[in-house]
Amino acid sequence: MEIFNDIKLNKKSETPLYQQLAENILHLIEQNELKPDTKLPPIRSLAESLGVNSITVVNAYKYLEAKKAVYSHVGSGTFVADPGLNDNKSVTRPLLNRQSLEDIDTKNCINFADTSVSVDLFPVDLFKNCFNTVLDRDKGDAFSYLDSDSMGYKPLRDAIAQRLEDEGIKALPERIQIISGAQQGLDIVSKAMLNTNDIVFTEKPTYYGALGAIFSRGAQAVEIPLEIDGINTEILKKLLKVYSPRFIYIMTRYQTPTGICYSPQKKRELLELAYKHNFYIIEEDNMGDFNYTNSKLVTLKALDYRNRVIYIKSFSKILMPGLRMGYMVLPKAVSQAITSAKYSSDIATSSFIQRAFELYLRSNEYGSHIRRMCSIFSEKYTLITSLTDKKLSPYFTYNKTGGGLTIWLKLRENMPDTHILCNAFAQSGVVVMPGSLFTTDDKETERHIRLSFANVTNTEINNGITIMEDECKRLYTK
Amino acid sequence: MEIFNDIKLNKKSETPLYQQLAENILHLIEQNELKPDTKLPPIRSLAESLGVNSITVVNAYKYLEAKKAVYSHVGSGTFVADPGLNDNKSVTRPLLNRQSLEDIDTKNCINFADTSVSVDLFPVDLFKNCFNTVLDRDKGDAFSYLDSDSMGYKPLRDAIAQRLEDEGIKALPERIQIISGAQQGLDIVSKAMLNTNDIVFTEKPTYYGALGAIFSRGAQAVEIPLEIDGINTEILKKLLKVYSPRFIYIMTRYQTPTGICYSPQKKRELLELAYKHNFYIIEEDNMGDFNYTNSKLVTLKALDYRNRVIYIKSFSKILMPGLRMGYMVLPKAVSQAITSAKYSSDIATSSFIQRAFELYLRSNEYGSHIRRMCSIFSEKYTLITSLTDKKLSPYFTYNKTGGGLTIWLKLRENMPDTHILCNAFAQSGVVVMPGSLFTTDDKETERHIRLSFANVTNTEINNGITIMEDECKRLYTK
């Protein structure tokens, strides 16, 4: 588009190129020279015409997406968002996976896209008991706070520290920071640790929704491809010769979106690199409990003998997303700065919720709940993998991870592209998550789809896979 | 101190001078060349020796305080914080007012410092009903969320919009943003609107605790003196010739710490300046409900016919601080960016708390609660002002505001300084808030003390004022 040829970037400026580019595009949007739903140029062609690296354009688009100025759509491409959309819509557009499904009636279809478990599985009654116990016991104190509460309710931090021992993580209560969900964890770490121009490494593919916090600091992301046992450490080593990242953001257990788990060797290697090159590792753990095998999956934090791992635990998948509750285990060197960032962000997480959560954690209910969830989803995992093996193997390959709530299918070479496929599935009432939502321009990732079995019945799994088989057959023989 | 003479600032750098200075000091702290509890040099002498404006040093110290690297102590001076302090202490040090009272046993004294009302006044039983109703009615849905929830639970936004009509504020539900407390409001506005080097105007004195969010963006604060009817608009006009602020942060009803209210004329003048010079006004309202007069105090937002006011409502004083609940009314032009900042900060405020809060707001209980609070605190206000008139008038002057939870006493010229006075009160078991906590080096502000009657009994008010009178007499006749 001609309009993009007028964009001038200043390579000598302190403002990173991607941000200059993003702000130029933002300006065009604000001036209405780029109208809502206009498709932005493809990454490579824009990079070429501007004479910049394509990673610059990728980061600019991601930055704009984090600002909700643009959105990516099922299939492919980045589009200008409509700021005038009425309230809910203006927020629902980009970032989170299911947001891109807004055009599809997900209520009356088989939903392999949603990764939140059914609300029927939330332990609401038990929490109701905990809430009432707290109200009767603590009365007004449940809603007061001290400034020392920024780190979190002390008895809750004690309970978490005890629980972490079972995971092999030795954490003093004063190194545990309570957060209002994993997103806030990443946000306050970014606030404490990142400034404009700082570099962050991520996995590729990764969960971009989480990166909004990083981009809000004006920092830049560099992606490192994932292998079956964790990130490619050879590429990481090469990149460490060029960049000094403040941290790397990873998920070691049932990664989003690939479901891979890090091997013991990769974990050791990664830690040694962090120690040698002085970067931190943000290990986000939202899926670790969904382990259907008999072997334990050790977190990176448990192996971190020199305190370089910031561990973020989310309860959104295993308990309930609307609880807005999680915690971090912090290395001493950064804990004060991070707690201070929490203070300036929202002072403290609701004391009422923390007190109820403490009761819940200290009861035996949490352990029983995890076992119950694993038993339910282990069964669904077995069902969906056996059906996929039986019906979809001519069209897809995938790795069995033995856990999590999703499987990550790769299209075989001779298949039509993901865009055509996902649309065909949707037309037949089956919604899946295209790989393109986890990357801006990685062709390899775009050849994937993700199936979630978090919020589908066994019958729906059966019917859904059958429909997918039928659609593949039809398209394949065309 | 010699160590400070080695600090070199680069006036040509894009990094603001105050930030360069702060980072130099931070470096000295990290290298342990400045040990915990070391007193930093006085503002003016450091400014002089570095050849910079004293506002630069003020902002550097405030920036460091926001990062909890330093703390201000009762009396005067800024000190290096101890990063090795055990958990609670490391957090309780600076920023919030009562934190500086840690050395004093506030439990066994008359506490005129605390501005949180007694927990006995929290409407806990009514909220308990609301919580249980939500759990029985919504079950798991109370803990699920959609990405569209970043703006807040729609029925709650509807209820707030209705309530705002009584305040003369016309706000569409889609311009109401739910927040987890006023601090988060300021934080996400800053995230959406501020970048390094941006200028923000504040009142002088102001509540510095709130500015941590602004400093976290690398922005700089310029203070404008308050008069009895609002900020000094003559000085504001002069400063507008030098600076282009992104916004001004003010409290129009019972300001912290002075208790002043803006006059209708000041409000109109301020709005016209905002329209002319294109800056936004952040109007924080945490005290507006504590009005003991018969006349209505109109908010700035109610008069804002060209949408330049971002109104932040806090329920921490009128309801309960630990609810972590508030809202903002946003101009359309910035609403999308701010909701997006909310999303990247913590996705959404707890849906469970929002749903219960909606029930509470829609009942008649909220109105009754406000009337009950006003009746209780109006009585205490009458008591404390009449006692102050009777016993303290030889030593202090003050303005009667007719509302709020505090009075702002100014020492008469011939009295000893605030530091000596506050210590003497404390020795006799009466804790007050010295004005020095609301400024870094303003001599005028330092000649004040603030008395809060939020969390004291009538007997304590009686005894407290009598003790203060005795101490004043003793010191005055020395």
What is this structure, in a nutshell?
The structure is a homodimer of 478-residue chains. Chain A contains 18 helices and 16 strands. Chain A is of the alpha/beta class.
Structural write-up:
With 478 residues, chain A is α/β, with parallel strands linked by helices. Chain A starts with a helix and ends with a helix. The longest helix of chain A has 28 residues. In chain A, 43% of the residues lie in helices and 14% in strands. In chain A, helix 3 packs across helix 4, helix 8 crosses helix 13 and helix 15 runs parallel beside helix 18. In chain A, the strands form four sheets. In chain A, strands 4-11-10-9-8-5-6-7 form an eight-stranded mixed β-sheet, with helices on both faces. About 4% of the residues of chain A have low confidence. Chain A has 18 helices and 16 strands.
Give the tags.
homodimer, 478 residues, alpha/beta, eight-stranded mixed beta sheet, four-stranded antiparallel beta sheet, 18 helices, globular
Task: Show the helix and strand layout.
Two copies of one chain form a homodimer.
Chain A: H1 2-5, H2 17-30, H3 43-50, H4 54-66, E1 70-72, E2 78-80, H5 87-92, E3 110-111, H6 124-138, H7 154-166, E4 176-179, H8 182-193, E5 199-204, H9 212-215, E6 220-227, E7 230-231, H10 233-242, E8 247-250, H11 264-277, E9 280-285, H12 300-303, E10 309-314, E11 326-329, H13 332-346, H14 351-362, H15 365-392, E12 396-397, E13 406-411, H16 418-427, E14 430-431, E15 433-434, H17 443-446, E16 448-452, H18 458-476
